[in-house]
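Hey, can you fold this one?
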Amino acid sequence: MLDRTSDLVRRATARAKARNGRHDDEDAPRLDGRIAVVAGGTGEVGEGIVAGLLVAGARVAVPSRSGERLAELADRLEAAGVPTEKLVPLVGDLTEMPDGAHEVAAELSRLIGRPDIVVVALGGWIQSDALADLEIDMWDAVIDQSLRAHQLAAAAFVPLMRGRPGAMYVQINGAAARYPVPGAGAVSVAAAGELMAAQVMAAEEAGNGIQVEALVLGPVRTRSRDDAASWMVAARSLGDLIALRAARRAAKADEIARAAEAAGLTAEPPVQTRRNDADDDLVDDDVPEPPVRLHPDALAPGGPATVLELLTVADLAAARTANPGAVRGARGGSLGWVLWGLQTAALSKQVRRGEPPTSG
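Sure. Predicted structure:
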């Protein structure tokens, strides 16, 4: 069985890794004029997402508690040849109570306008004791850093996205959201909660024109993972995928808006206060922006949450073509999830032996 699985992995990887993060020119996504926010953008997965959105032409805001990490992010992007002219760093704490997330969202909106795309890549992986043996302080810390952080981000940014043509909210999650991982009980429970939150949000916000998408990831190839296997999805590939899907939704929204305008269904847009490039003062530029509430027929509706499992590079092709609202599991289960099971089984054995996990 394992020999057959290894053969499947080799063949699937050979077919897919040439496509990992690359598209034909005619399919290259463009997000010019769109505003994106990446919460967690200074992280290793978040960095790849920021890069993909910048290359696609979006203006990308990245909030972080650390100005140093923001500067390092810009340096790494420039070194990788990613254009950073549209990168908007902002020092701010999304988790600071009582109003940290709302203050960050309000400042970003003041600087560059309301977001069209929000990507939330918060939380991390923590290997710990068995669930029944877990100290409550550790439980609280995991929930605080993941599920609570996601809720704070949603509460701050989603209201700003309502009525934005082609709006897309993307949640970055882990495979523990759908598959039990021994020794990672708190992470698994938090991830499952985040996934359900995405599905509930999709049901609640569809009428406001927001499409919610959840990417359920296995191990990701990042800048510090020198030993990463070739079958792992690269962080930059995730950014390219999100940019592609957001660009397609934006194009559809523009098509609907043009048809609605021709039918006389749109309202007069309000005057938006924008930053004048000539100086740092806020001025009234009389630049129109889509109104907060468009006529229902002028707004591209959202739908059920799109849930895309991405464990290997073989899963990228299906994710690129999945319709909004689709639920796509990892390729064949017997391929992707055997690999995931082997990895997590090794981790849980280390935990039972009292050894620190060495696999990421």
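Residues 25 and 351 are 47 Å apart (CA to CA). Let me know if you want another pass with a different chain boundary.
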